[in-house]
Q: What sequence folds into this?
């Protein structure tokens, strides 16, 4: 359900069209999903959601931070290949993985350590993502960044040089957000375009996370020596 102002306008502009495959590079797509809300008690803010899809050299598909499940979206994805892996990259981005697992039971669920304990719905894990042990070393590099507040699995698609992050770096576009308090908090947290980051926000999440469901969105950022990478975030 969309969060709207009294005048009927949505508090957030989604990345339309939603639930549609959008090519990013060879064997790499994103799907922008519906809005999801996150907050503490009565104070909840809307976030956009995004899934990233890789096609491995084997032809199998990896779904990173899946958006809300629908039969139509599944059918569109399976035209690309068989869905074999579902990734929950951190303890905030997992919410719709069980729905995809129920619909595609042959798919394996991969997640960071501790997620099953922290999840606010039943969450079964087939394989833990640990250290640099990529399940697909010929296609994707893996680095699990561990922390007290947040542990996140970072993926790097080698062939297209695409880095996939969730909450380690955030870069929200203020022009898409129509709630002045939300815009202010994003800027205060250092998560506003064009210079989004992540560490300041993690201190806030340490307090908020026990009270609410996970969060999500999407962004681009410039890292390292001017190389541009696409960053994907999704709410769970």
A:
């Amino acid at each position: 359900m969309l969060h709207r102002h009294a005048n009927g306008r949505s508090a957030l502009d989604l990345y339309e069209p939603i639930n549609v495959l959008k090519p990013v590079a060879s064997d790499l797509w994103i799907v922008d999903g519906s809005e999801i809300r996150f907050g503490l008690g009565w104070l909840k803010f809307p976030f956009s959601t995004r899934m990233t899809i890789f096609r491995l050299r084997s032809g199998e598909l990896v779904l990173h931070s899946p958006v809300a499940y629908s039969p139509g979206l599944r059918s569109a994805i399976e035209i690309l290949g068989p869905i074999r892996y579902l990734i929950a990259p951190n303890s905030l981005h997992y919410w719709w993985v069980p729905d995809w697992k129920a619909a595609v039971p042959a798919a394996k669920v991969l997640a960071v350590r501790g997620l099953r304990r922290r999840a606010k719905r039943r969450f079964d894990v087939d394989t833990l993502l640990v250290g640099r042990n990529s399940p697909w070393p010929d296609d994707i590099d893996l680095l699990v960044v561990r922390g007290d507040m947040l542990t996140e699995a970072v993926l790097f698609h080698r062939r297209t040089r695409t880095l996939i992050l969730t909450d380690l770096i955030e870069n929200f576009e203020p022009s898409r957000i129509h709630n002045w308090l939300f815009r202010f908090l994003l800027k205060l947290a250092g998560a506003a375009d064009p210079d989004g980051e992540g560490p300041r926000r993690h201190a806030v999440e340490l307090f908020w996370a026990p009270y609410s469901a996970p969060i999500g969105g999407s962004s681009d950022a410039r890292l390292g020596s001017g190389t541009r990478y696409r960053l994907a975030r999704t709410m769970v």
